[in-house]
Amino acid sequence: MFKYLFLLLLIIITGCTYLGSSKPILKQSDLEKMIAGRFDAEYVGTDTCLFKCHEHDKLNEHFKKSIHAEQISKETALPLVNCETCHGPGSLAIENIKEVNGKKQCDYETLINLKKLPAGAKNLTCLKCHTISSTPNTVFYRGSAHDINDVACSDCHKLHQSPLQKVGFFEQADMCFHCHKKIKLQFTAISHHPVNEKKMTCTDCHNPHGSNSEKLLKKDSIKEVCVRCHLEKGAPNPFSHGDVTDDCTNCHNPHGSVNDNLLKFREPTLCLKCHKGHHLTSSADSKKLYNRCTDCHSTIHGSTTPKGLLR
């Protein structure tokens, strides 16, 4: 019994010692070969791949017009980006070109199969170049809502669909709604921000790559995001609506509402959630006055007059 325990302890200590020891860092090319699952492939370059198989001419045309193609020139001192940067070494893929349904097809099984990789591994393909230093926008990506929910870069960035290599302004909301179906439903309400009308889009308020504030907001607080457009609501006033105005969503639903002005509830219901309301007379049995509060209290976001932000 003690013999086996001693042997197990020895294996654990030996293993920990090995893991803790210094080892040479593999070159990026060797790491890509390892991901592909074979070390017998070699890098042949994009031109060689295209010469052997012309079925990717359209993809190459898109690539040449993209921002990634601008980095191929070594004079730029920027990372070298080509087909093999993402798909791994291609020598074995072009050795056995065959015709399938009248079209040339390489042995793509010898390449890195990005479709079969988990989201985290896919993202590493991008992040080996798009580091925090080169792409500051990704500084908060690790641990963000999209990262935790296994959203891959390629889920949003379709590199082979157009030279733009990212979704356009007018298509962006539809892409987000593919996952955020509840938000899509809110934008169908009678009162909503003009996202469906293509006058603004999701990234006007949110940073999809991560943020140091809640809901992936571009600013440190909800109010800071809102007052970038609603400038008059951000002006300092001697008489403000307390700390309620620090968070606009206390009263408004930013994506859409069945009530006017994106309000969560209609007046006076919304106001009565915090305020007691008014009585017709000062007597104890006086009936309460229920009316639209903003008929009298119009400057609810802040005022230069006291006594309830009156007109």
Report on the architecture of this protein.
- The chain has a domain at 28-165.
- The chain contains 13 helices and four strands.
- The protein has helices spanning 2-20, 28-36, 46-52, 57-64, 83-87, 91-95, 119-127, 145-148, 153-156, 169-177, 181-186, 222-226, 269-272, and strands spanning 98-100, 103-105, 278-279, 288-289.
- The strands form two sheets. The protein has a two-stranded antiparallel ribbon with strand order 1-2. It has a two-stranded antiparallel ribbon with strand order 3-4.
- A hairpin with an 8-residue loop joins β3 (278-279) and β4 (288-289).
Structural class: mainly alpha
Strands, count: 4
Uncertain runs are none
Strand order of the largest sheet: 1-2
Main β-sheet: number of strands, strand sense, barrel status?
2 strands, antiparallel
Helicity, in percent? 25-40%
* Strand residues, percent: under 5%
**Helix count, DSSP H or I runs of 4 or more residues:** 13
Order of helices and strands: HHHHHHEEHHHHHHHEE
Provide the gyration radius in Å.
Answer: 29 Å
**Principal-axis shape:** elongated
Q: Whole-Å distance between the termini?
A: 88 Å
Output mean pLDDT.
81
